[in-house]
């Protein structure tokens, strides 16, 4: 299996970005701690629809519409 180098670009005050040689644009890396804060659920607005991203007791993520 071939390994792929993934480079991390860190900028203080901004989200880190993952850059893959296969990606057409940088992929944002957002930690779940920054996303959830002290809560267990966030709402994501996408094309006029709301999605719920929840953190379970077993520390798993569930995305529902």
Ordered list of secondary-structure elements with their pairings:
Elements (H helix, E strand, L loop, with lengths): L6 E3 L6 E4 L7 E3 L2 H5 L4 E6 L2 E7 L5 E4 L1
Antiparallel strand pairs: 1-2, 2-3, 4-5, 5-6
InterPro entries: Hemin_uptake_protein_HemP
Protein name: Hemin uptake protein HemP
Organism: Nitrosomonas europaea (strain ATCC 19718 / CIP 103999 / KCTC 2705 / NBRC 14298)
Low-confidence runs (pLDDT<50, min 5 residues)? 1-7
How many DSSP H or I helices?
Answer: 1
Q: Name the helix and strand elements from N-terminus to C-terminus, one letter apiece.
A: EEEHEEE
% residues in beta strands: 35-45%
Kindly identify the CATH topology of the largest domain. Complement Module, domain 1
Integer average pLDDT: 79
The biggest sheet, with number of strands, parallel, antiparallel or mixed sense and barrel status, is: 3 strands, antiparallel
Global morphology: extended
Distance between the termini: 36 Å
**How many beta-strand runs?**
6
CATH superfamily of the largest domain: Complement Module, domain 1
Give the helix proportion (percent range).
Answer: under 10%
Structural class: mainly beta
Organism: Nitrosomonas europaea (strain ATCC 19718 / CIP 103999 / KCTC 2705 / NBRC 14298)
InterPro entries: Hemin_uptake_protein_HemP
Pfam families: hemP
Protein name: Hemin uptake protein HemP
């Amino acid at each position: 299996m071939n390994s792929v180098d993934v480079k991390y670009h860190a900028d203080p005050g901004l989200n880190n970005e993952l850059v893959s040689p296969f990606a057409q644009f940088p992929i944002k890396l957002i930690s779940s701690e920054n996303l959830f804060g002290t809560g267990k659920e966030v709402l994501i607005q996408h094309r006029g629809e709301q999605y719920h991203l929840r953190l379970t007791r077993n520390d798993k993520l569930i995305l529902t519409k």
